[in-house]
Amino acid sequence: MFSRIQRLFRRGMRRLFAGKENHVERPVSQSASGGFGVPLDTALSGWFQAETGELFTGFPIDRGDTVLDVGCGDAPFSRFCATQGAHVLFTDIDRTKVSATRNALKKTPSLRTSSFVSNCDALPLESGTVDKVISLEVIEHVDNPKRFLAELVRVARPGALFLITAPDPVIEKLQKNNLAPDEYFKKPNHVRILERDGFAGLVESAGLDIQQRERFGFYWSMWWVFFWACGQEISPPWHPLLQSWTTTWSLLLESEDGPRIKRALDDFMPKTQLIIARKP
User: Fold this and answer.
1) Closest of 216, 210, 224, 233 to residue 271, by C-alpha
2) CA 208, 12, 170 angle in degrees (round to 5)?
3) Between vectors from CA 78 to CA 73 and to CA 84, what angle results, nearest 5°?
4) 46 in the Ramachandran plot: left (φ > 0), alpha (ψ -120 to 50) or beta?
5) pLDDT (tens digit, 9 = 90+) per residue, 170-218?
6) Helix 218-230, helix 240-253: angle, nearest 10
7) Radius of gyration for the alpha carbons in the chain, expressed in angstroms and rounded
8) d(Cα 30, Cα 240) in Å, to the nearest integer?
9) 209 — phi, psi (to 5°)?
10) CA–CA separation, 23 vs 145, rounded Å?
């Protein structure tokens, strides 16, 4: 059960943002019903803004940027950056993920790609060489978040932008106290719950200036609530409860008032808290 939770969690967090493999090419208005994840929800949250070249609203990827993707997983973020023509450095603790990402980025217009396997305690990069740093759903896993952030800051140039996310404490506490098995909150899964002010404090104590804070992901908060009730394996076919929830959420978003309701629910019980910060 322990390894199943770990694999599903990592896969689910990546698909939270990615929707499906061809998410970048999907028009926002296209129906998202029936798949794992809701691409329309992803776009409305601010992700993968291909027209403006922003990975997330307020986090542009420019041609020629050197981008570091820490914990690349299934590579949706690296792939977007490579599509914008950036030089993408990507790393993960999972060697198979790094290999798969390397193969995926061969088909993109990236200027150059580089990869390595690392737990990020020490990055094999020179100081002050990276323009953009991406660290999504990683900091809650590491043993020492201050040391982790310090290493990311070390390799960034002055003026570099950081995009960092962590699970929001509201849904984390609900899962820990009532829903998830104990293994979900033990190493190598989540070893800490980051309060919102505490998360911001860690980023600021690393010497970064916060530019933007966001919360989103009510759909995924509820997906995980329903998942724990289903008792299914980690692969399709998904339980009818999960399929029904995805369809219901997709229909809501496609309604006239759907985006407004999404914003209200994202604020009420988000799955993810996000910070964009700059190195002075």
Assistant:
1) 216
2) 60
3) 165
4) left
5) 999 999 998 999 999 999 899 999 999 999 999 999 999 999 999 999 9
6) 160
7) 18
8) 22
9) -100, 120
10) 31
Coarse DSSP helix, strand, coil percentages of the chain, rounded to the nearest 5 percent: 45, 20, 35
Alpha-carbon gap, residue 154 to 158, rounded angstroms: 10
3-class DSSP string for 183-232:
HHHCCCCCCCCCCHHHHHHHHHHCCCEEEEEEEECHHHHHHHHHHHHHCC
The amino acid at 72: C
Do the beta carbons of residue 136 and residue 65 sit within 8 Å? Answer: no
Contacts of 154 (CB under 8 A, 6+ apart): 123, 127, 128
CB 57 within 8 A of CB 82: no
pLDDT per residue as tens digits for the range 74-115: 889 999 999 999 999 999 888 988 888 888 888 788 778 888
158 sits in which H/E element: strand 156-167
SS3 47: strand
